[in-house]
Structure formats: C-alpha cells, structure tokens
Amino acid sequence: MDEIRRRLLSGAASLGALFAFPFGASAQAWPTKPIRVVVAYPAGGLTDILARAYSEHLAQKLGQPVVVENKPGASGAIGGAEVAKAAPDGYTFLFTISTSMNQNRVLYKKLPYDADKDFTYVSGFDAGHLPLAVAAGVKATNMAEFVEMARRERVTMGNYSAGSFPHMLAAQVNKLYGTKIEPVHYKGEAPMWADLASGQITSAIGSIPAMGPHLQSGRVRPIAVPTTVRSSRLPNVPTFVEQGFKDSIFVIQGWIGMFGPAGLSKDIINRISAIHQDAAESPRIKQINTTFGLRDKPWTAEEFEKLNEEIKPIWIALARELGITLD
Questions:
Q1: What is the spatial distance between Cα 162 and Cα 270, in angstroms, rounded to a whole number?
Q2: Separation CA 41–CA 79 (nearest Å)
Q3: For the chain, which end, N or C, has fewer CB atoms within 10 Å of the first or last residue's CB respectively?
Q4: Do the Cβ atoms of 162 and 134 come closer than 8 Å?
Q5: Has this prediction a pTM greater than 0.85?
Q6: Are 160 and 127 within 8 A, CB to CB?
Q7: 72-93 pLDDT, tens per residue?
Q8: Which 8-state DSSP code applies to residue 225?
C-alpha cells in the first residue's frame, strides 16, 4: 500500500510540474534549432551587413546556427510579411529599415502586415549619415547651388529603394523650392553609385562606405549630410542645416531594426538584446561602426520603441503630405 501511495504521489508531482512550467521550461531551452533572420533588403547594404555581423555573434553565444536570408522587394514589405505571419517562438526575426514600418503604411494602399500590431521590437541600430552626393561633372558644390541648378534644368537623384528617405527628400525639395528633381529607384546601393560615378544620374543619396570607392576615385562628390551633426567620416561636408535647409526631412533620423513576430517572449527579447550589447564590443562590429560612422551601441527594445514612437508621426506625415504612392 505504501509503495502504491508513493508511486501515485510521484506521478502526480511529475504531472503537476509538466503543467505548471510548460512555458518556463521552453524558454529556458531556447534555442534548440537554427534561427532564421529575414533581411528585407538586398545583400551588400548596411542593413544586410549589420544583420550578418550581429547574427554571427548571436550564433556563437547561443550555440545554434543563425541563417540570414535576403527577401527584398516592395520597400521591405515582402520580408516584413514573411516575419509577421511567423510563430512568435524565437526562431524567425526581421532586419529592416524605418521605411518598412513607418512610410509604407502611406506608400501602399494595402500592406500584408500591420506595422503596429504584427511585430515586437528587439533591437535598434543607427543607420548612420546618408550624404547627398553629385557626379564629378556637376558644377554644384553645395546645397544652394544644387537647388538653383535643379530649378533651371532636369536633375536626377538616385535612391536605394522607392519610398526611402532619398526618395522622400527629392519630393520634398521639389515641393519646397520648385525644383525638377526626378527620383531614380534602384534595388540596393551598388548599381546606384556605379551610375552616379559614370554620370548616368546627376546625384544620389546613400551610405558612405558604399559610396567610398567612387569617392576615392574622385568620380562622386558629397555636398551635404542630414541630421544636425556632421559625419565623422566626412568632417568637411556641412549638414543641410548648416547650409540653411532646416525642414524636418533634413533633420529626421532613420534606423535599422530587428523585430520578431507579435507575442515574442520578453525573456527571448532580453537575451538577444544583451547579446547585441556584448556584440558591439567585438572587433568586427567596432570596425563596422567606425567604417559607417555609427553609434557604439544598439538601442534596447524599450529605447528603440521609444525612438520610433517619436519619429513615426513625422515620417507618416511627410509621406502623406507628399502624396507618394507605390501601388
């Protein structure tokens, strides 16, 4: 009788443990299989570079492979839709830019995701300065001269994605100053900078490292940088603000972000965030930050969400005001 009683109590205890801690046990076990990171933009750009560098560090710390997949298209909407419908189990994440989460809700009449409800903030990363540069044969040496030129004649401005910051800047400059800037959309930066270097387009906006080889060859010339502080990589290039161009489009900051599907465990978010903070101290990521002129540390999930909640209304208002649509 004592033996039967002992077995019943033992079985009850085991059953109770099974039902009392199903989520805790699962969270502690995570990850038990490879993690997938979807990059919503083409390979080779800053979003892709950061995704791969931080994913490599994540894999080392978690002991599981972290597989990066590029799913570009529709200004990040294709990659975003794939992650939005994924299970919030810590095995699918998204790397994207502010366009996907903010401007896209205005740029597209119907999105395959709800940017406010379908994602969880994980980490945010500085997108760095995106200078406006002109082809070597262009006479304009500053923003005022560029605007005057664009009032007199047709001027083209390359951007790395329709609906992106460069696209919106071109539209806003046209509206504010009566210019004739024609945006030219590319899938990524490499072909854009190649076209600028060869003189096929007048100007372009993008990252400093992607522009670097053409800058060194003297085939492109930066004339202005956004935000209120100069780039450490281009200390002699004044900001738009310094040159008297102070509308919000010249000041507002974009970002690169890592998101999970809605409902992602806070424990998993905190664990990834801690690893990202640690990764920022690694030689590889320090070199990336130096090369691109980025801030030293990523934003935590809370910091990232707070930052975006502050700038989101500005981006949305700009997109709505300019009337840019992509479908």
A1: 33
A2: 8
A3: N
A4: no
A5: no
A6: no
A7: 988 899 999 999 999 999 999 9
A8: B
DSSP 76: G
C-beta separation of 238 from 244 below 8 A: no
211 CB neighbour count, 10 Å cutoff: 25
Q: What are phi and psi of 34, to 5 degrees?
A: -60, 145
d(CA 215, CA 8): 77
Is there a contact between 313 and 156 (Cβ–Cβ < 8 Å)?
no
Domains of the chain (ranges; CATH) run 34-127+253-322 (3.40.190.150), 132-250 (3.40.190.10)
Contacts of range 62-66, beta carbons closer than 8 Å, 24 or more positions apart: 62/31, 62/35, 62/275, 63/31, 64/31, 64/32, 64/33, 64/34, 64/35, 65/34, 65/35, 66/34, 66/35, 66/36, 66/37
What are the two backbone dihedrals, phi and then psi, of residue 277, each rounded to the nearest 5 degrees?
-60, -40
3-state secondary structure (DSSP) of residue 207:
coil
Query: Considering only CA atoms, which of 65, 47, 27 is closest in space to residue 270?
Result: 27
- Over residues 227-284, the pLDDT tens digits come to 889 998 899 999 999 999 999 899 987 899 999 999 999 999 999 999 999 999 999 9
